[in-house]
Recover the amino acids of this structure.
């Protein structure tokens, strides 16, 4: 073998060694790169990304210089630390917890109201949490756990009578006559009562059984809207029961002129315009047809003053209760 061939052989061996070293380095580098995990950490309102070789979340948090207090908690988004795992830190904060009438002040790192209750041994079965179980916990929050219960009871109650109103054309509009008095019956009622912390808050009827039926009250309601007058049947809009007095045209100032400017005479009546508007035609049994055309200082509310032509008529009339028909 010549010197040249020997030299070439040595160079070839060196090349092979260098290539081998480079390959080993590349494999090691690739292995390290593959071993690194990218982990997201959310703490104190901030988010950071950490590339780590650690497999324990505690070590990753130390690497990221994130301090976890003795009452703080962390949660991982995956069962074990892996690439793209998110670690969320929950800081311990003060809250008040009300249960069975007692208030307990605690420090908790539980993220939701439901988890706070569970950490205190309060099952959510038959419990109403306020705020709701999935509500995020905030510092200073007041949480109330109310025990819910229900009970089914059977009792007797009055079966209240109904009222039946029957139109009757023989009665004037506005008139009512009781044809039959009502009477309550008896029924058995099954109810479900709902309780909150031992106090009844609602109930619902589940079943009813009539023991003794009720008797309805029957009322005949007048529909006739006409009244017989000296001019025949006339339609009326409504009726008023009023206290009536009488006066003469010369009473008061003695001028005999009404508030509407017409002369006072039989057939003119004084009214409260808020009850019967001036200008209304009325009919008063025992007096007749009239026009509401005057007012008076003492005529307020359901009072009416009837004008009489003679003093003796006014004295004889005196003061009495009358039914006033306000005509159409």
């Amino acid at each position: 073998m010549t010197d040249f061939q020997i030299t070439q052989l040595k160079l070839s061996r060196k090349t092979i060694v260098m290539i081998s070293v480079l390959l080993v380095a590349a494999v090691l580098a690739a292995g390290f790169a593959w071993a690194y995990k990218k982990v997201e950490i959310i703490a104190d309102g901030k988010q950071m990304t950490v590339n780590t070789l650690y497999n324990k979340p505690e070590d990753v948090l130390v690497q990221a210089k994130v301090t976890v207090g003795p009452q703080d908690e962390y949660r991982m988004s995956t069962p074990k630390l892996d690439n793209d795992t998110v670690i969320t830190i929950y800081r311990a904060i003060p809250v008040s917890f009300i249960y069975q009438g007692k208030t307990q002040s605690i420090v908790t790192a539980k993220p939701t109201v439901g988890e706070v209750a569970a950490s205190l041994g309060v099952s959510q079965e038959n419990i109403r949490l306020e705020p709701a179980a999935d509500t995020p916990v905030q510092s200073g929050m007041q949480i109330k756990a109310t025990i819910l219960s229900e009970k089914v009871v059977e009792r007797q109650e009055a079966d209240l009578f109904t009222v039946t109103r029957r139109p009757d054309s023989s009665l004037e509009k506005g008139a009512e006559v009781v044809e039959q008095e009502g009477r309550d019956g008896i029924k058995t009622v099954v109810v479900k009562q709902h309780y909150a912390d031992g106090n009844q808050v609602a109930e619902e009827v589940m079943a009813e059984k009539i023991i003794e039926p009720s008797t309805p009250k029957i009322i005949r309601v007048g529909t006739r809207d006409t009244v017989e007058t000296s001019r025949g049947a006339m339609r009326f809009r409504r009726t008023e029961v009023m206290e009536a007095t009488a006066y003469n045209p010369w009473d008061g100032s003695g001028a005999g002129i009404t508030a509407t400017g017409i002369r006072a005479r039989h057939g003119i009546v004084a009214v409260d315009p808020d009850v019967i508007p001036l200008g209304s035609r009325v009919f008063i049994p025992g007096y007749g047809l009239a026009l509401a055309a005057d007012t008076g200082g003492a005529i307020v509310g359901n009072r009416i003053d009837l004008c009489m032509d003679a003093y003796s008529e006014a004295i004889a009339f005196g003061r009495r209760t009358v039914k006033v028909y306000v005509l159409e």
Notes: The first strand starts at residue 37 and ends at 43. Confidence is low (pLDDT under 50) at residues 24-33. Residues 143 and 320 are 70 Å apart (CA to CA). Helices lie at 3-35, 57-63, 113-119, 311-317.
